[in-house]
Design brief:
By secondary structure, this protein is of the alpha/beta class. It folds into 4 domains: 113 residues, 3-Layer(aba) Sandwich (Cobalt-precorrin-4 Transmethylase, domain 1), CATH 3.40.1010; 126 residues, Tetrapyrrole methylase, C-terminal domain (Methyltransferase, Cobalt-precorrin-4 Transmethylase, Domain 2), CATH 3.30.950; 117 residues, Rossmann fold; 130 residues, Rossmann fold (3-Layer(aba) Sandwich), CATH 3.40.50. Helices cover 35% and strands 21% of the residues. The chain contains 21 helices and 22 strands. The strands form 5 sheets. Strands 3-2-6-1-7 form a 5-stranded parallel β-sheet, sandwiched between helices. Strands 8-9-12-10-11 form a 5-stranded mixed β-sheet, sandwiched between helices. Strands 14-13-20-21-22 form a 5-stranded parallel β-sheet, with helices on both faces. β21, α20 and β22 form a beta-alpha-beta unit. α13 packs parallel to α14. The protein is elongated. The termini are far apart.
Length: 512
């Protein structure tokens, strides 16, 4: 009996802002076995997916295709025939200038079941983010969407598109996709077809992202205005009287980090709040985790912990990962919160304490400075002689906590619940990083820094960092960063995610 085919979900992710993907799109994306994704997506949609989902980068940019269209279609068919459910994730709406129809034809011919999950197309979203209503009772009663980048397989493609008809249709709005490279030709054809050279027009570069730019001018001057501004794809062309409303209706304001590309090396599973803070402040996020964590179960140490539960003492958490994996393994061992009833809990800082609060635990002790040295020193003054201290840790945790507490007479039990390893680099991450120079690289632990060098190789890591400033979460991380040969420009005073974002904002404001 042949293996049942998987299903392909053709999903539109919307343009730019990751929040523009539909609820159905997110729901499907989290449930599939594999995702085949394009270049123009917000990368945080991919990097935050569950680790078991296979990822295939099939991105296409102007003049740079990682895969041919035929290869993409064959990949979808192969994965489906392996019994996998696949998310085919495309920017905007795949059914509007997204070649979705071609991929569906290939799937239909191959007998592969599919579902279409529509997305918000660039015309509506990008125009809205620029404050341009595509229709307006006083200015435009119709909108026409067209592609200015026609198939090279068409014979005499320049002559096939009816620019003269578009030009003669009267008041309305034209929205051109993928036309940056052929802008001069498009404008020439429209004016020759009868459109007024003074028609309000604009190019919206990287619309619905914090890197968005609006370059407006009369139609005849638009190619020169684009050239003067150094406009690069992706961009949307909007032509019509409604463009004149952009200045009045503009709402998507630039934020402090607008135009800054910030590379985040923090593990994807922990970086959600960091992505959000950077996004709120206008950064273009480049997620490139240098490390990832895996559960590590030490059954002998857990048995020792359970033997001490009636005696109680202290449980010490020095990372969010420690909290997460400790709780997972506690329940896996058929225990619950009652096991912790006789223990007080110490957290290294506000981030770890927040992770505890989210699962219903409250920190009894947080040191005055969020470092392991301060935690160890101050906790040693509180812990009684022979009192139990359960030190929850990963494989790279500093031994200073155990050493300091043991010197004070505590009975310390190291309980390793996870291990940190170098994250895998895939084609999508490489494409995001290499798209343009990085402005700021963030390191939130010593291991993110050392693994960054090992992950990319020293020569490539130096190239990536050549035009960037380094932001560190605190003194220990800064020391590690310097030890690998990088200069630390920004160091957080408060050693937390909020602290490093604040330090970046302060530095950017001083250096604008």
């Amino acid at each position: 009996m042949s293996k049942q085919s998987g299903k392909v979900y053709l999903i539109g992710a919307g343009p730019g802002e990751p929040g523009l993907i539909t609820y159905r799109g997110l729901e499907v994306l989290a449930s599939v076995d594999a995702v085949c994704y394009d270049a123009l997506l917000d990368p945080t949609l991919i990097i935050t997916l569950p680790s078991h989902i296979e990822r295939y980068y099939v991105g296409k940019r102007s003049g740079k295709h990682s895969q041919s269209q035929g290869n993409i279609e064959n990949l979808l068919i192969r994965l489906a025939r392996e019994g996998k459910n696949i998310a085919r994730l495309k920017a905007g709406d795949p059914m509007i200038f997204g070649r979705g129809g071609e991929e569906l034809e290939a799937l239909k011919d191959a007998g592969i079941p599919y579902e279409i999950v529509p997305g918000v197309t660039a015309a509506t979203a990008v125009a809205a983010y620029a404050g341009i209503p595509l229709t307006h009772r006083d200015y435009a009663s119709w909108t026409t969407l067209f592609t200015a980048h026609e198939s090279t397989e068409k014979e005499n493609s320049d002559m096939l598109f009816p620019y003269d008809r578009l030009a003669s249709m009267g008041d309305g709005t034209l929205v051109g996709y993928m036309g940056i490279k052929r802008l001069a030709k498009v404008v020439e054809e429209l004016i020759e077809g009868g459109m007024s050279p003074e028609t309000p027009s604009a190019i919206i570069e990287r619309g619905a992202t914090q890197a968005q730019r609006i370059i407006g001018s009369p139609l005849i001057d638009l190619p020169q205005a684009a050239e003067n501004a150094g406009v690069e794809p992706p961009g949307l062309i909007v032509i019509g009287k409604v463009v004149g409303l952009s200045e009045k209706l503009s709402w998507f304001e630039s934020a402090p980090l607008s135009g800054k590309r910030v590379l985040v090396t923090r593990p994807a599973s922990q970086a959600g709040s960091m992505y959000e803070l950077l996004r709120i402040n206008g950064a273009s996020i480049v997620p490139a985790p240098s490390i990832r964590t895996e559960s590590f179960v030490d059954n002998r140490a857990w048995d020792s912990f359970f033997e001490k539960k009636s005696e109680g003492g202290w449980i010490v958490f020095t990372s969010e990962n420690g909290v997460r994996y400790f709780v997972q393994q506690l329940f896996q061992h058929q225990h619950d919160w009652r096991t912790l009833g006789n223990f007080k809990i110490a957290a290294i800082g506000t981030g770890t304490a927040k992770a505890m609060r989210e699962i219903g635990l409250k920190a009894d002790f947080i040191p005055s400075k969020f470092t392991t040295d301060t935690l160890a020193g101050e906790l040693a003054l509180i812990v009684e002689k022979d009192e139990n201290v359960i030190r929850v840790r990963g494989n790279l945790g500093e031994p200073n906590v155990e050493e300091s507490l043991e010197k004070s007479g505590a009975n310390v039990l190291p309980l390793q619940v996870y291990e940190t390893i170098i994250a895998q680099l895939d084609d999508g991450i490489r494409a995001w990083v290499n798209e343009a120079p990085i402005d700021i690289i963030t390191f939130t632990s010593g291991s993110t820094a050392t693994s960054f060098i090992e992950q990319w190789g020293r020569e490539e890591a130096i190239r990536i960092a050549s035009k960037a400033v380094i932001a560190s979460i605190g003194p220990f991380t800064s020391d590690v960063v310097r030890s690998i040969g990088f200069e630390v420009t920004i160091e957080a005073e408060t050693h937390s995610i909020e602290g490093i974002i604040d330090a970046i904002l302060i530095w950017v404001k001083k250096n604008q």
